[in-house]
Amino acid sequence: MSGTVIAVSLSATHTFSKPNHDAIHLLAGLGVEGDAHLGVTVKHRSRVARDPNQPNLRQVHLIHTELHDELQAAGFDIAPGHMGENITTRGVDLLALPTGTRLRLGPTAVVEITGLRNPCLQLNGLHPGLMKAVLDHAEDGTLIRKAGVMAIVLTNGTVKPADTIAVELPSPPHQSLQPV
Asked: Which SUPFAM superfamilies match (predicted)?
């Protein structure tokens, strides 16, 4: 399985949306250089309020552009970076990957998927009804979170639009993604 980086984004402050850039630099064990969520410990405000010393399993946020396509078809004006992601992808079913999957982004950067992004009500501030649009239910009633995945950085590297994404699955048994 492989895909492509569509866009890269970062924000030095805790803004919900992140502006697109020509490139971002990933730092092992920290996240996206210059991004407000960079660090060994968690930087997301709601998580800091609960425990500022917990490890940062949300160093990099990835969203598949196929979700953007779905949301645009439903009438939402969504583009890369709008929902706070650092890396927008195409061609990789991010939500179907197991925990521990490694993504090689471009020539050197490697991230490891830690879990699902748990969407928050701030989405409705961007577009009314967006929170509901990124949630779904399976036939058995299980909640499906579609707002992307979170990862940690294993290997430094620069990531740019048009970079390839190589997927390396962990050894079985695979664990399905849970919110982090």
From this structure: PK beta-barrel domain-like
